[in-house]
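Shipment paperwork, digital attachment
Item: protein structure file
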Amino acid sequence: MIPAMPATAPSSRQASAAMLRFGRFAAMGTVVVLILIAGVWASWGTAQHVLLTKGRERGTVDVTRCGPEACWGRYTPLSEGSQPRARVVLEKSVAVERGRTYTVVLKPGSDDAVRSGPAGVLYAWIPLGGALLLASVVVAGGLLRTRAAWVMALSGVALLTAAFVTV
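Attachment content:
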């Protein structure tokens, strides 16, 4: 006896539709992963100095002058082995003002400083917050995963808002 075939065998149209769905999923998934990797990569350049402070010079900077792209001032050490310096450079942003004092971590082998503490950590991860917002649009529109997109978008907004409030 010959086994019965199902009444509806997959047609070539159904197979091609499944392949297109898989292709869209693979392409959009790749785009999302690349956006998130770019966000982490952009953030890590600063975040590594703020998060991995063991063995790094930590202290405060009294900002005395600001130029178009950087501010600088006198460095007062807080960690053992760190030496006072007459001038260290702090990247100028909306959060750095002349006449204020900031806690910083010095980049190894240079006089460049990065803000430390909660404000420095959140400020360092701002590119990741933007990447989460951008990737959420791709997840919602390209992958049709609205819940995951909302989680990503709200995470990005929370990160950016926390950085704005803290800095």
